[in-house]
């Protein structure tokens, strides 16, 4: 039951970071949020066994079960922030760079295919890329939590 709730929570956080956060925050703030998330999740992965021993002392949960659960949770956090960091950097950056380059330097090719298609549909392309990343992450999180 707890894994199902955790899965729903992680999917909600992932949806927020992929779809709502780019509209709410600047690119610089998103990179800071994802950088802090990556660093903190790596630190938590490093201290996972110590945290598991502490949890097992406070509760009646076996320390190996706690360590396996916490390792999966911290692994999910790491993947979540790395994936969103990649989306902010790669997908948005490449599309913006391509259209800006052809708008500033190469005006002759701005109205040729495929540059014209990308320029006119860059919002749709970004949403489709985010949907693909969201579904991929959902599959990865499912695999980590339920297997």
Q: How would you characterize the overall build of this protein?
A:
There is one protein chain. The radius of gyration is 20 Å and the shape is elongated. It has one domain (2-146). Helices cover 86% and strands 0% of the residues. Helix 1 (2-24) packs parallel to helix 4 and helix 1 (2-24) packs antiparallel against helix 6. It has six helices and no strands. The longest helix is centred in the middle third of the chain and has 42 residues, at 63-104. The mean pLDDT is 83. It is mostly helical and 147 residues long.
The radius of gyration computed from the alpha-carbon positions, rounded to a whole number of angstroms, is: 20 Å
Q: What is the β-strand count? A: 0
Distance between the termini: 14 Å
Count of helical segments?
Answer: 6
Order of helices and strands: HHHHHH
Question: What is the approximate shape?
Answer: elongated
Low-confidence stretches: none
Key traits:
147 residues; mainly alpha; 0% strand
Nutshell version of this structure?
The protein is mainly α and 147 residues long. It is built from six helices and no strands.
Fold blueprint:
Elements: H1 2-24, H2 27-46, H3 48-58, H4 63-104, H5 115-120, H6 122-146
Helix pairs in contact: 1-4, 1-6, 2-4, 3-4, 4-6
């Amino acid at each position: 039951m707890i894994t199902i709730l955790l899965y729903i929570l992680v999917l909600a956080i992932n949806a927020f970071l992929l779809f709502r956060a780019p509209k709410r925050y600047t690119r610089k703030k998103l990179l800071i949020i994802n950088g802090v998330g990556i660093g903190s999740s790596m630190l938590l992965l490093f201290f996972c066994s110590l945290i598991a021993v502490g949890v097992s002392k406070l509760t009646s949960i076996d320390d190996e079960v706690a360590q396996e659960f916490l390792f999966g949770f911290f692994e999910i956090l790491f993947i979540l922030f790395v994936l969103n960091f990649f989306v902010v950097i790669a997908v948005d950056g490449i599309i913006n760079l391509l259209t800006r380059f052809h708008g500033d330097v190469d005006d002759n090719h701005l109205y040729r295919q495929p540059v014209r298609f990308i320029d006119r549909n860059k919002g749709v392309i970004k949403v489709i890329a985010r949907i693909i990343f969201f579904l991929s992450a959902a599959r990865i999180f499912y695999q980590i939590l339920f297997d």
